[in-house]
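USER:
Class, as today's exercise, take the chain set out below, and explain how the chain folds.
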Amino acid sequence: MKSKLLLIVLSLCTSFAFAQSIDVNGTVVDGSGLALPGVNVKVKSSSQNTTTDFDGSFKLSGVPKGSSVVFSYIGYRTQEVVVSGTKMTVKMADDAKSLEEVVVIGYGSQKKREVTGAVSVVDSKTLDVLKPVRIEQALQGTISGVNVTTQSGAPGAPLDIRIRGIATNGQNAPTAIIDGYVGDLGLLNPNDIETITVLKDAQAAIYGTIGANGIILVTTKMGKKNSKTKVSFNSYAGFQETSRKLPTLNATEYALLLNESYANGGRPLPYPNVSGLGSGTDWQKEVFQKGAPIINNDLTITGGSDKITYSISGSHLDQEGIVGGDKSGFLRNTARLGLSADLSDKFKLKTNVIYTYFTRRTLNENGLGSVLFNALNVPATLKPYDANGQFTLVPSTTGLGTEIINPLAQIANTYNDYNYKKLNGNFGLDYKIFKGFTLSSSIGFNTSNSESKTFAKQISYGGKVFDVQRSSVTQGAVNDNNYSFDLFGNYTAQIAESHNITGTIGTTIFKEWGNGLFATGFDVPNNSWEFADISLTKGVSETLTNSSYVYDQRRLSYFGRLQYDYKKKYLLSGMIRRDSSTKFGPGNKVGYFPSVTGGWVVSEEGFFGQPKAISFLKLRASYGTLGNDQIPNYGYLGLLSGEATYVFDGSLVNGTATGQVPNPDLKWEEAEKFDVGLDLKVLNDKVFIVADYFIDTRKDLLIPNIPVSGINGTGAPGASAPTLNAGSVRNKGFEFAIDYKDKFSDAFSFSVGYNVTFLKNEVLEVNNGTGFIEGGAFGVGQPAPARMEIGKPLGYFYGYKTDGIFQNQAEVDAHPSQLALGANAAPGDLRFVDVNGDGVIDTKDKTNIGDPIPDATMGFNLQLNYKNLDFAVYTFASVGNDMVRNYERTLSDANRLNYVLDRWTGEGSTNSTPRVTTGATANNVFSEYFVEDASYFRIQNIQLGYSLAPSVAQKAGITKLRLYAGVNNLYTFTKYKGFDPGASSGAPIGGGIDYGFYPIPRTYLMGLNINF
């Protein structure tokens, strides 16, 4: 009887249990109601789990009622939902700043909460808003410590990235690692990017000799497991215009000013009657094109099963220039294939291959005689065309020099073409040897080919330096290749539940090789671009018309890293890398680069309690050394790369000679990096703060062209002085970033971010015999205006200080003589400062008159979402950077900017702008007068978008439809007179000299995003 009763009780209990187990069907959506595929769905305290499909749907069978289901997805907050019925809809809260987010750190990854270095991330959502043509543009203003400058606003022009300042007078660009291999940021399609991670401190030591300038890690988009095929199409079209025109003098103003200048110089008036001149020609209006088109389309297909994920994409970009139209156009096509496959429980294959093709045409820019230089300096009294419809010739008078020509004729007679093809990618294999230990191998490669052609048409501009007496065509072909092989193992273990260890050890082999060939042919048939090919030229030249080069360099590296944490509270990481490079001589090929980073998660301590305001606080520090070998190949060897002419049997014969003087003692340039920082989350994770103080000291700078005895023949064609380790530079500063993000309701969310970087740059050592190195150019025939010198910022401006304008002869007589500068001073001339107090103004009075490196840079970004509308603004500011105004030709008859209308015309008239005269003065020597504060604030991007309601979109068979309109480079607030206060030639010494920078265009865009 008891046994039967027990059986009945057990049966009832079992029946009850089964009655409480139900099948659950559900959907997971994001904050805007769009389906989220690939979300991990797991029954808590159970092995049962699944992922959402393409429609965000999932199904769980036999789930006990009352149990919890955990939903997790990268970029969203993990949620737990109690099962109460058979239907479930879960809305995931966006959490891009989640501490559980995985951050790539090189040869591995870490959760953000465990990172001990200075690391910043830009995600694909930011790229979607910014719509950059080149990825580098997305780093400006979005990450503290990173400054991006444009060399030109022309389509396809390169950009320069500087992480925590300029540390060397050589190569300062960071190294880009794309999915594990060295690549080129500028060639990628921005829409292919998932995340961009910037390693700014000693965390980058795992990359050794290529990490001194920082590391940029790019992760491209991949498909997700167990997700249906997803098709994403993005398109935008727009038009461009110049963001700025400079206020030059019109014809009447120019003639009146020229008359005054000639009268002051005691010469006859060139324009006795100015009444009929009117406004004349606006040469900038003639040169700048309005409505220059830009079009971009890209298509991405992603998906995956439980074993394979894939991502296929293609893009097309076509952009014309705002100067010259298709004469400065850029076209880029890309194609990418990403694939990941679980071959077995132990083996995983992954590959990513990218093909890029682009063509580019360019105009003469950023120098004396450039198109914009001529547009600013040609007088408004001249017309673009003469009575016969031909381009007007600019007179070759002394007052207009020999380099100022009609810019429209210059554009029309510019012919060049450049095309570039590149295939790059990697193939990797992961092997799980046993629990916690994975062996990874990867082969990365880059192979590229480029062809160039430039045609010089036989033409006369009326006795100018641009006159071409004999037509010619120059063609070039370049082949560059590299590959890397990485083999490394990662071991992860947990000891006694409190100690967590991750160890990494590996090796890298890198080889880079290539060649180039260039040749020139003369007498092009019909003097025409159509026939511009060397095979058709028959002209003979008495000088060398071809050249070539070949190179081969290699690195062999070993590296190791050990990461340890105790209860996720105390974090420690140590790493070391050994690099061997063929760029250095036998005694200096090997370098060792160690570093250590540590962190303390204070908020995990028991004494911290459960505060309401602060939810997370981490202190961290790092110290280590990294290397830099970015110098030309074979600097330690003597090569026959120079040109020479010899006499044989009484005849001159072309031959070869020694090139750069060799230096067998060349060694690594070393960066010593120190950083302390904190990460802080407050107000229920709505506010995230990151702050860092850093010191970056670069030692043993690899400085080229150190002056040596002329006996060595360093002045011969193709020859040069040697490269030496001869300097030291220190950058120190403070970074601060704060982000606030809140969701006020299901309909309205808001996020705002601000970051600022304060930086001080100082040269500590220059061992080249003179104590300084010069660079840059100003005017014609003047000494170099920029320097690298001990105790000063790198590339500071070296010239004469000014103290207003002489108002009368008594002031001139009382002031030290300025005759040594080229002319006696007169009332209305600049008054130069006697810096050394010796009673004479001469070269000994030159001093520091400006610094091109900004004191602070900052970004302010805002995003709003209301129902189906979204709005975003991104801005950037630079404070304290100076720039040299060098785009005006200091000739008497050249046109001027209208600030000259406030010139000195008599005692008390002004104390800032000197008189105009054709007579000799010292007003044009390089001085403070030509150095301006180039601080600026720029609205980089503003965008308004509308997304179709998910319920409506899904009825149309699509998961997302978004339309948007935006403006890039909307407006720049600055007092600087030139085209672009944020431009730079990229040179560490002389980069802040404005030769007439091509302005960044203002771009109006309309686009759409469609997901199927």
User: Anything to note?
Assistant: The chain is about 5% helix and 45% strand. The two ends are 66 Å apart (CA to CA).
